[in-house]
Structures
1.
Amino acid sequence: MAKYMLRRLVELVITVFLIATATFFLLEAVPGDALSERADKLPVESRTALYERYGLDKSMMERYVLTMKRMCRGDFGESFVYAGQTVTGLIRDRLPVSARLGLQQMLLGVSVGLLLGILAATRRGTIVDYLVVGLSVLLISIPHLVFGLMLQKIFAGSLRWFPTIGWPSGSELWLGGWKYTVLPTLTGAFSYIASYARLMKTSLLDVINQDYVLTAESKGLSRAAVVRKHMLRNSFIPVMTQLPMSVAMCITGSFFIESIFSIPGIGQYFVTAVHNQDLAIVLGETVLLSILYVAVIFITDICYALVDPRISMPGVSK
């Protein structure tokens, strides 16, 4: 077990390093730089000093080595576009906003999706099943942008039940300002509802005809007891595999939703940084988010192997 975990950790470190390297060289391959627009308006001496400040006067390989050294120390540098803005400050200020939005979307969407999936599987072939399948296809086919604009038009524009834009801040950042979060949460929850409803239905149908289910039914257990005690536990294994990835994805922000509702989250700022070729911000966010993703994958692998007895891990005897 220890050897397996150590090997996986080494693989994850290498993965993060390769992601950082690929991000650096891809941004370097884009013509121009983040300072060109600002530097063109400055005298020659000021322009030279500006490029020296951010290290853009050095060759690409020199910048790569220096960037990797700083990254190993946890220093991702300063924004090229917004003076004084660091990656650490950006994450501290904006990640909680995206995290609250994403967690609310996931909790609502996953809960409703699982319930609909169970309902569709236990009512297979009925009108309920067809309605759930049709709703899932509809929700997963329509982009977030369309849902967001539609909800704004109806509930914020016509009915005026909720604000059009905005997000709670200060002491209300985590547990207040609910009226601002309703429409963005619904907009992002629809995709979770569609995905988890289909996943739960498929997973339940896979176990519904297993021998242990037929045995439980032959013993006289009610349908509800069979579903609750025998079917749900085994059908949740695929759900548990996907759920950690959903958690990782939900707190990284959504550019479209944050743009529609003017939410100051990390997703909107990340796309802006890419457009401005702000290498420090893009690289820092990419590395930090990749660490989050690979850590979730690592935890998922361990949990999956512990929950499912059919999975064997090197160094672990069953």
Note: The mean pLDDT is 81.
2.
Amino acid sequence: MKLWSGRFRKETDALVNDFNASIHFDQRLYKEDITGSLAHAKMLGDCGIISAQDAAAIQNGLLSILEDIESGKVEFSADNEDIHLNIEALLTARIGDAGKRLHTARSRNDQVALDFRMYVRDQIPTLIRQLLGLESVLCRQAKQYQSAVMPGYTHLQRAQPISFAHHLMAYAQMFSRDVTRLEDCKKRMNECPLGCGALAGTTYPIDRKATASALGFYAPMSNTLDGVSDRDYALELMGALSILMMHLSRFSEEVILWCSWEFKFIELDDAYATGSSIMPQKKNPDVAELVRGKTGRVYGDLMSLLTTMKALPLAYNKDMQEDKEPVFDAIDTVTQCLPVFTAMLDTMTVRTDHMRKAAALGFINATDCADYLTKKGMPFRDAYTATGHLVALCTTQGKTLEELTLAELQTVSPLFSEDVYEALKLENCMALRDSFGGPALRETSRQIEAVEAFIQAHAN
């Protein structure tokens, strides 16, 4: 018999029972459910709502159930539909009437809201640790390749010279923002819905501040309707995870390009690549491709819950049972992607020779040529036009700018002199870009140090 069946005259149809049950996915909330119930039982006893003996029996019973679940001795039943009713039924079977008193001054609505909020909150530190681990690898690789010249791109066209370290630090900045977004999300969600009841609180003299404190929350949620119907925290987490996956996907796209024979900027370790079933020469960047593909999955999880919530009136509706699977899936996906992506980057071989060769062929020092003329007194727009003429000349002759003779350079301006060749050298072009945030060695060193300090400050 179901715990809520008092006013019903028929058994639930088997199809409805299967359709309605959530135990096959919400059983992962068992620890949060028991933790919340332990705090609730203690509060009931402390407030004199139930006897101290019953409170103690409930707590001991819950701890024994937790031990049995974690040792694999408990089999959940769909007849009890969800993790909350399964645990309550187990408790009552073990300790008798005292177990029936646990649900005093509580509804499944605030119980569900509490369990889910605690689960989401408690997953965030793992996500942050994984992100900081990725940033640590980026810092290690960046230190090694601060002088490795590569072309920076716009429109996927070679644009200006940067270092590989500078490129990696761009992603480190993105992942730092992901960390702080997750931290903000955790801080904002850390209010306790326990005690909100079904929607309107309770007539019992409960102590919501005591349960909030016992469960690690800053405070109780201040409106009971909001307490049971809010899922902003889950949406906010999935929004943060979607942005995080977008960053991983952009990085994956570049890894895929860099692995190709057309670029060959990096080579992945054999342990983080796969082969072809028919083409023996192939070495495929499947890790990066899967991360890129799984990004759409996390986006879909976010859209699923946004769509579920978009027209729900207050307070709780059964639609909200659909909140957990997309959140579980998004968290599972991201926590699977981050470690393998990190290991892939940590073990890759960087082909600085190919990067340097690509940088030499793209006229990426053209802006430096125009800057040279500008510093000699020519207006920038005139210098821009003159350099454009030189690029056209190089194109017809199959040369780079630094391969032009001084006489050829002087056909567009007498301001050119021998010192232009130092100005056009790619290493110097990069070294002179020492404005704040740029690719010069001094600046990339500062960026790496700043990210390392960020990792240290947020690794708690």
Note: The two ends are 47 Å apart (CA to CA).
3.
Amino acid sequence: MNGAITAMSLIGLVLFWTFLAWAKADPKVLPSPLAVWQIIQAEAASGALAHHMLATIARVAAAFGLAMGLGLLIGVTMGLNQTLDRWFGAWLLVFLNIPALVVIVLCYLWIGLNEVAAITAVALNKTAMVAVTIREGTRALDPKLGDMARSYGMSPLTRLRHLVLPQLWPFIASSTRNGLAIIWKIVLVVEFLGRSNGIGFQIHLYFQLFEIGYVMAYAFSFVLFILALEWSVISMMEKRATQWRLQE
């Protein structure tokens, strides 16, 4: 039922876009969904779409992995240690409020126009957000379960697997969804400013040529990829995150 509603909603969005394109009656300003789809097919047939899509996916995956790994480590550590949280909580606030564009420009200036700078810039922008979410999740852990685990002599690894992670899964799933939504957008800015391939690079190229159809084609191609990821991997993670509660 939910899948049918989602499909109908997306069809409605396409129909609304079609109406706007018809009302504007200028494909150079607002091409129709069919025109954009034809561009996507042409770019896919030439191999350009796959080349630039894979470059962007690689950057998103690398930056996402770094941000999630560092964010989990920092968030759990600060959530369990109040002293560290008092000393370094302000640091998280600072990094949360530094504009992404500033971090990107500084990384390019300090490291150079290369992949290391691109991935570092994206990861730094997201790490603080993950850390804050996981820190709040760690603070919300049930202390009674921890006392029970210690009374039964459970090892740290067993406690992590059976007590800590199940309680943190909703926060991890939330960080994953928000992280992907934000990271891929920041990656586009990184590619727009200083890379020679990727979806952002193509958008920059066609922006200069004022080819709105191509800009929309490359943007929506990656949106479709993210939607597929959302409805498969992330949805499965959410089910896993709430399964233990449904069994109570």
Note: The chain is about 85% helix and 0% strand.
